[in-house]
Amino acid sequence: MRVDFTKMHGVGNDFAIFDATAVRSRLTPDRLRQLADRRTGIGFDQALLLGAPHRPGSAASYRIFNRDGDEVEQCGNGARCIAALLFARRGGDRLALDSPAGTVRARPGVPGQVAVDMGPPSFEPRTLPFDAPAARDPQLLEVGGQMLRIGIVSIGNPHAVLAVTDVDEAPVGTLGPLIEQHPRFPQRVNVGFMQVIDAGHIRLRVHERGAGETPACGTGACAAVVIGQRRGQLAPRVQVSVPGGALQVDWAGEPTSVWLTGPAEVSYEGHVEV
């Protein structure tokens, strides 16, 4: 069966978006893993499967699969790309999407940009989940014989954030996988390496669970900002410089939602056989 898709990216974090209402059963994790290959498939960080809305007033629902075939709870840049696609198709200045982590509200920003409401962050270990008796910052985590001080937070999906002095020198490729698969994170974790430039600007690299390091991670940007803000280092609006470009994160503190803003672009459209 032929299935259409739209290839999109948000500052280099790339997605294949499938209108999967009628063919979802054919887009199995194994087939998506094959399609994610950058030599023999489409190539993407995540596959986003659009479906019918679950709630009155929502424009659509979506599911998220990492390139290793595992389904995950949330994807900030993916939500922005879906919203941009639906705004282009339908128009309007507001919409709601049903995600595995709950309802995501979206609105257009300046031309070419979309903002999404990622909901309030949670710092409770059970919400990630993370094996710890209570919420605290930092949490201590022993990895490879060294004791790390990490911030943990759920942005609808789990994140661990490490402060570094120079993000270019951060051991993303070695330490990222070790933290991702640490037994205290039973569902694995996304790992952010954050360098604070000033109160309104950070640099960030993220090792995403099931995908490795990506040019950008929307929920990772949100996680880094809320951890930094709770430590008194960051302002309510922060520019997040990632390898693929720049994102903006706005958070007014607990119990308010985190807003993520950035570009969302169509690369091309195509079809595959499933």
Named CATH topology of the largest domain = Diaminopimelate Epimerase, Chain A, domain 1
Structural class: alpha+beta
Global outline: globular
Spatial extent as radius of gyration: 18 Å
Counting DSSP E segments of at least 2 residues, the number of strands comes to: 18
Number of domains: 2
Per DSSP, what share of the residues sits in E-state strands of 2 or more residues?
A: 35-45%
Distance between the termini: 5 Å
CATH class of the largest domain: Alpha Beta
Verbal overview:
The chain is an alpha+beta fold and 274 residues long. It has two domains: 2-117 and 263-273, Diaminopimelate Epimerase, Chain A, domain 1 (Roll); 125-256, Diaminopimelate Epimerase, Chain A, domain 1 (Roll), CATH 3.10.310.10. It is built from four helices and 18 strands. It has helices at 29-35, 76-90, 172-180, 218-230, and strands spanning 2-10, 13-19, 46-51, 60-66, 71-72, 95-99, 102-108, 113-117, 139-143, 146-154, 158-163, 190-198, 201-208, 212-214, 237-242, 245-251, 258-263, 265-273. The protein has an 18-stranded mixed beta sheet that branches. Strand 9 and strand 10 (146-154) form a beta hairpin. It is globular and about 50 Å long. 46% of the residues are buried. The mean pLDDT is 95.
Primary descriptors:
alpha+beta, Diaminopimelate Epimerase, Chain A, domain 1, 4 helices, 42% strand
